[in-house]
Write a structure and sequence with these properties.
Elements: H1 3-6, H2 9-14, E1 31-32, E2 38-39, E3 42-49, H3 51-54, E4 65-68, E5 72-76, E6 82-86, H4 89-101, E7 105-108, E8 113-116, H5 125-144, E9 153-161, E10 168-175, E11 179-186, E12 192-199, H6 202-214, E13 218-220, E14 223-225, H7 235-253, E15 270-275, E16 280-285, E17 288-294, E18 297-302, E19 313-320, H8 326-337, E20 347-351, E21 354-362, E22 368-375, E23 378-385, H9 392-401, E24 403-404
Antiparallel strand pairs: 1-7, 2-3, 3-4, 3-8, 4-5, 5-6, 7-8, 9-10, 9-14, 10-11, 11-12, 13-14, 15-16, 16-24, 17-18, 18-19, 19-23, 20-21, 21-22, 22-23
Length: about 400
Amino acid sequence: MNAAIRFSTLFLGLLLLVGCNPVRPLPPAAAAETPATADAAGTVGLTYVGPAELGSGDSSRCAMLQIDNRETAQLTACDGTLTKLPLPANVAATWQDAVDRFGAFTYTTPSEEITFQGAGQLDDPVWQRALLTWASVTRAELAGGQSSATAQTALSWNLGQLPDTPGVCAHLTVLFYGYAYAEQRSCTNSNLVTAAEDWLGQTEMEQFDRWLYGFAPLYVNDNYLDGIGASQLPKEEAAAVEEWAQAVWTRLAGLPLAPAVTCDDPAAGEQAYVNTGYGFCLLIPAGYSVVETAPNNYSLVAGGDIMNHTAPRVSIEVSPASDRTFAEIAQQFVNDFVLAGQTVTPENMQVDGVEAVLLNNLPGQDTNRRIIALHNGSVYSLMFAPLTAEAEPLYQAVLASLRFLPEP
């Protein structure tokens, strides 16, 4: 049976619980491979010695944790106190997967040591470090009698709304020892919908290990990679983490992700404006400011002066579609803004690949034009004024740079 299938639903649920601070592995040290020994009771599959025991001065270096192939854990204190207990279902599943996948090795850091006897083939140092971490976390959880999601999660990454699946977002969770969950969660409350899971592949693990041990923690909005190194991750490397997370999620889930949305970089004389709350970004001329005139209404005005009605300006209003079709929304805007007896023919167009309608030469304090677009259940109404040759560059610049962001 596939190792991924054997992981219990209980363990997946634990990932969503709030736990204590992560138990972090130490930086990598040189590894030497030696076979584990067997005794009359059966092969000892894992022996883990933790920091307190190695530093105790006891030459016997008593084992904090032993697990054998009967799926029984044994906790030993340095004073000889022995506690023997059956492995919880989630730990037993992880253990058996590790026995099937990884070979025999001994791996030592200045304060920890693991000796492992498995039936598999993998014995690369990245996996030895990973199993050392698993043993450390497992020992702490068995001793404390409870599991901690945060003690195991090294990467948590939101990947945006899934295409053609309204309200469902992609999220990747990767544990310190290289096991990953491609989750589908509610975009509004993060409740788990479903998940696919498996170990990282060798190439994926090598890259993950390099980031984890080589760099300090990385935080991007609500995403994080809990690195234990000292150096800050370079900007280009941060972008690579996003791409890596997308590739791992897609492999595990077997589903496409929505194309990544990239806001345009400002050129000379431009500045970027990003509104993640209402899901859009654009470029505006230098000297312009965005003023929030209502909770869902933003004005792009020269010098930030909303009373300036002579300079070109843009108003952006975002409102819920409320289950209306785009045709119904467009007709409502015609009813609201086209006066009786006035002839305005709606013009079909696209804004950032999204279906939109243009209403031109509308009356008001200044003759203006409106563009209406529907994206992710929200109606975007853009009003441009006045209709003058001076205002045309602002109109073209906003339309060319407007990007609709995935639902957070």
